[in-house]
Amino acid sequence: MNIQHLRHFIAVAEELHFGRAAERVGIAQPPLSQSIRRLEDSLGCRLLERSRRHVELTVAGETMLEHARIIINQVDYCRRAVLSASEVGISKVSVGFSRSALSDHIPKAMRAIRAVAPAARIVLAEARGQEQVKSLLSGELDIGFFNARTTAIDGLEVHLIERTPIVAAIPEGWPLATKPNLQIADFAGVPLLLLPAASSPRLHEAIMGAFHARGMTPNICQEAVADFTRLKLVAAELGVTWISARAAPDGYPGVVQRPIVDLPEHISLGLYVVWRSDVGPASRKLFTAIHEAVTRGEGEAPRVLQQIKKDDPVGL
């Protein structure tokens, strides 16, 4: 049994006519008949009942057709994947993401990958920024999306996608929730749920600095890393928190969000796309296409596709 036997058998089984099947696969009828006979001999059973006017599948033939189609589809997919990997130089892309990147940017990134490297297998992994940095440096991840407050990460290229303001999340029944806009002074004495310093030292330091600049000390009642954890605590009326405006863009039950109008501009969260500095040319072009897709529009990926072939002298 070989792949050619299977292709010949599928043609006969679908046409139920040796003449049409021979024309379909581009060979004469006698070699086609011999190919089917060899397949039957190798299996030790008849796949077709033949007469001068009629061709019919046996029960064994029906089973063979089902499996032959699967095998041929897999072989064809394998061929496309190998050729695509050979042309693009990429067979798998491991993508890390934080929750804040999931809603808009990851779907755009996946479509960009499929446009540039259609046969590449995409592996997604949700992780915090610090975990992604370790995985990127170790090679477990190829590209990552996460919030950061610096573009200087040794060994990595860090590209800004968007900058998101910090807003206050307040229990809906609290007096602060009645104000359309808030100032830092409004949080004097208010129980505050913050990120721990260890999880985001720069952001934590900037928030503390904003209070100290006004002669205030924040009343930190609880610390939690995840925005959604702090939102749940706010909904339980344990305090107020400051979160990314993207953390809950459609709102959260029992919580209202308000802008902090005098918050210094540098207190914001940047969402970045990140990859290793030492990646090869094909990977760099793919990652650049992803970056362009999530920042400028998905129409950019096909443009980069024209530059990604190994022998293309045009750099990005």
Largest sheet: 9 strands, mixed
Number of helices: 11
For this structure, the CATH topology of the largest domain is: D-Maltodextrin-Binding Protein, domain 2
Shape: elongated
CATH homology-level superfamily of the largest domain? Periplasmic binding protein-like II
Tally of structural domains: 3
Percent of residues in beta strands? 15-25%
Oligomeric assembly? single chain
Provide the gyration radius in Å: 30 Å
* Uncertain ranges: 298-316
The separation of the N and C termini measures 48 Å
CATH class of the largest domain: Alpha Beta
Structural class: alpha/beta
Mean pLDDT score, rounded?
Answer: 85
What is the element string, with H for helices and E for strands?
Answer: HHHEEHEHHEHEEEHEHEEEHH
What is the total tally of β strands? 11
Percent helix among the residues? Answer: 40-55%
So, CATH architecture of the largest domain? 3-Layer(aba) Sandwich
What does this structure look like?
This protein is of the alpha/beta class and 316 residues long. The protein has 11 helices and 11 strands. The C terminus is likely disordered. The chain folds into 3 domains: 86 residues, Arc Repressor Mutant, subunit A (Orthogonal Bundle), CATH 1.10.10; 103 residues, D-Maltodextrin-Binding Protein, domain 2; 108 residues, Periplasmic binding protein-like II (D-Maltodextrin-Binding Protein, domain 2), CATH 3.40.190. The chain is 43% helix and 22% strand. Helix 1 crosses helix 2 and helix 6 packs across helix 10. Strands 3, 4, 5, 6, 7, 8, 9, 10 and 11 form a 9-stranded mixed sheet that branches. Strands 1-2 form a two-stranded antiparallel sheet.
